[in-house]
């Protein structure tokens, strides 16, 4: 199968929690770090979201991070945030129902707490992700992005059953002080669906798990490494 040299990135439309007043949205670095790696490797990318349209940004993701806490403005993420052309990509994204797996080599599910709400509730996203898998294409996700895998099924069974993967841990959720805000423990929900979940022994340290065409990263520090793994896997398939 010839490569299209195109990747599909999925982002959230949700900008706030349901139970608390915190604002949330896309964790911007989980887009930009992956983007930079894939772009340098010669891939083009499109961005879609469950509902289409505007993508909110988690305000804390614009800050430099230290041990899961914001400590100030700056860094590579902020350079993208200042880039009008780059940020305009997030003003009117395509709805996932309007995109097709056949047009891309891989799908990448970004994180940010907003995805905990709209990713698993999106039937079109579950179907699209299953289409990528059935076509023998790379399925990847980072941080809370694996929430988009929770309701993906294949032959009536959860796609992630028996698969090795990772995602934002409950320990990290507590350290980030979002354990009382999120609707569920992503770590627990992945395990309930039969996934062979693992995580770094050091919270917020980059950690990536590869299981065939499934590539997942644990936290924001893992996004670039997920990108590197996706690029490597695609080039190995040439």
From TrEMBL:
DJ-1/PfpI domain mapped to chain residues: 30-231
Signal sequence segment: none
One GO CC term, this protein: cytoplasm
PANTHER family attached to this UniProt entry: GLUTATHIONE-INDEPENDENT GLYOXALASE HSP31-RELATED (PTHR48094:SF11), PROTEIN/NUCLEIC ACID DEGLYCASE DJ-1-RELATED (PTHR48094)
Lineage top rank: taxon: Bacteria
Gene Ontology BP annotations: methylglyoxal catabolic process to D-lactate via S-lactoyl-glutathione
Keyword Lyase on entry: yes
GO molecular function: glyoxalase III activity
Sections of the chain in a coiled coil: none
UniProt cross-references to InterPro entries, sorted A to Z: Class_I_gatase-like (IPR029062), DJ-1/PfpI (IPR002818), Prot/Nucl_acid_deglycase (IPR050325)
tRNA-binding as UniProt keyword: no
Keywords from the named record: Lyase, Stress response
EC id: 4.2.1.130
Record-stated family: Belongs to the peptidase C56 family. HSP31-like subfamily.
Annotated protein name in UniProt: Molecular chaperone Hsp31 and glyoxalase 3
Cited Gene3D superfamilies: 3.40.50.880
